[in-house]
Design goal:
This is PGL/p-HBAD biosynthesis glycosyltransferase. The protein is of the alpha/beta class. It is about 25% helix and about 20% strand. The protein has an eight-stranded mixed β-sheet with strand order 1-8-7-6-9-14-11-15, with helices on both faces. Strands 4-3-2-5 form a four-stranded antiparallel β-sheet, with no helix packed on it. The radius of gyration is 21 Å and the shape is globular.
């Protein structure tokens, strides 16, 4: 097997191969990796490096000098010649998945933050929900640096995420929604597979709302985390399944990680992984109420604490936000 570099300037175009990755066809798995998706309802397009015959693999060194190709489960196989400017013993394939719908305003920022990473073995998948704005034009503009993308109708954000996970050939996954960005160009340099106990890397998150940035703290104990600031092993979906996809349920990712994330299987990175734009379903009050319900049912919180948090949120909705919006409109209109 030979390694192909199409462009040194992008994290997604340096370590390519014309040989398809080995897919584990074990029917007992909760999901099965696919390289391409069968055409779904209302498909508007499909493209990327895979459709041109280029694929990705993970790599490990054997005895400190010879590189071996790894399958989607991280198991090493045939030898390969790699010439790298850095001294590393491993290059696990990291898959970044972006789900988007009518996201022309901020999608380009998301794409640039992924393909500009210094880590040379990144796989990038974009799942578009059949956008009607300029989203497809932006995707096509960068498809030379995108491994695979599709545009078609889906059954909600978690259905789109699950499509991306099924397409992931990487042993590590990061979900970076359209509009959110990686916070810096060296994020994936922190990932190592030397410690088999570590299954999740996570960090604090920078929230941005109308150009105002706030740091949101994350911890295992408080069950406070954002999936954009998590990089986790693909195999976790073999153990726990894909994200639940039900009408009006907006916390399937939170439900998944609240059960999976533990002190002994995770490591917190000091540098915030992502910058998260506060809008969409996560800003909806029902999203917050669903989180409280999960914390209570899973034993992550007490009844008293949940009641206090619920009353606080209701008080904000009734007594704070309406006057704030009213006064803001007065001053804005006055100016």
């Amino acid at each position: 097997m030979d390694s192909v570099c199409l462009d040194q300037n992008y994290s997604t175009t340096q370590l390519l191969s014309t040989e398809r990755p080995l897919i584990d066809a074990n029917s007992n798995d909760n999901f099965r990796t696919q390289l391409f998706l069968c055409e779904g309802e209302g498909r508007k397009g499909e493209g990327g490096l895979r459709t041109k015959g280029y694929f990705k693999h993970g790599y490990k060194k054997q005895n400190g000098n010879k590189w071996l190709v790894c399958d989607v489960n991280g198991q090493s196989g045939s030898p390969i010649e790699l010439t790298l400017e850095r001294d590393r013993d491993e290059l696990p394939l990291i898959t970044v998945i972006t789900v988007v719908f009518n996201g022309e305003k901020f999608l380009e920022e998301t794409i640039k933050s992924v393909i500009s990473q210094t880590y040379p073995n990144v796989e990038y998948i974009i799942i578009d929900g059949g956008s009607t704005d300029g989203t497809l034009e932006i995707i096509r503009k960068y498809e030379h640096a995108i491994d695979y993308w599709i545009s078609e109708k889906d059954k909600g954000i978690y259905d789109a995420m699950n499509k991306g996970i099924n397409l992931a050939a990487g042993s590590w996954i990061n979900l970076m929604n359209g509009g959110d960005v990686l916070n810096g160009v060296d994020i994936f340099e922190h990932i190592t597979t030397n410690d088999p106990q570590i299954e999740i890397y996570f960090s604090d998150t920078i929230f941005i709302n109308q150009n105002k940035k706030v740091l949101s703290k994350s911890s295992v104990e408080s069950k406070s985390f954002i999936h954009q600031s998590m990089i986790y092993r693909r195999d976790l979906h073999k153990q726990y399944g894909l994200y639940l996809n039900f009408p009006k349920v907006t916390i399937s990712d939170y439900l998944f990680f609240s059960n999976v994330l533990k002190r002994e299987n995770s490591k917190k990175i000091d540098h915030p992984i992502s910058i998260y734009r506060i809008d969409g379903i996560s800003s909806n009050p029902s999203h917050y109420y669903q989180k409280l319900a999960v914390n209570l049912m899973c034993g992550h919180s007490t009844v008293f604490k949940v009641v206090v948090q619920l009353l606080y949120k209701i008080a904000l909705q009734v007594f704070y936000y309406p006057p704030y919006k009213f006064l803001k409109n007065i001053f804005v209109n006055h100016e």
